[in-house]
Amino acid sequence: MTVLEKQDKQNISLKDEKARLRKLALAARDALTREERSKAAYLLTERILGHQWFYLSENILGFVSYGSEIDTGEILREALKKGKKLFVPKVQGEDMVFYRIHSFDQLTVGYKGILEPAGNTEAFCYEEQAACRTLMLMPGAVFDERRNRIGYGKGFYDRYLWNKEALQLRTIAVGFRCQVFQNIPSEEQDIKPYQVICM
User: Fold this and answer.
1) Given this structure, which CATH class describes domain 3-198?
2) What is the pLDDT of residue 13?
């Protein structure tokens, strides 16, 4: 077996392992009761709204919860109430662009049924100075105790963040405790969130 063949085999097995862990974590997430979801969302909201990064940030790069993801709605609404610039992602081809919204009314059903902005408002423009006044909240399927993250398999956040080092330092991945495993595999291109908060 050549070196390239060995690497291909390793990549395939790593991909399979990520898919297996993703399936386990999402099944556990789907099985949570309404009461468990509500309590976790409340605790997460309290934690994020009390976080220094939220308080000091002018820009919030949030995400609109989809399916059984932990509910970020109250966090996003509070960001708007406090006069912060709120940006949420829209999938455009293989990439994401974060567009500013002033209201949830500006969202429409987009990629895979997720609510997205139309893409006709101000887009978040990455600059190192702006990143220091920005908080990004990240979704994910699986996390571990070393801040590794497995997303949903398309690599949108990894591609968005790979050349934005200052913004990487202001990222918080959020989810439920059932999504946290002791140790998950990671690859060179996987971007670690700076913090993981799971309730």
Assistant:
1) alpha beta
2) 86
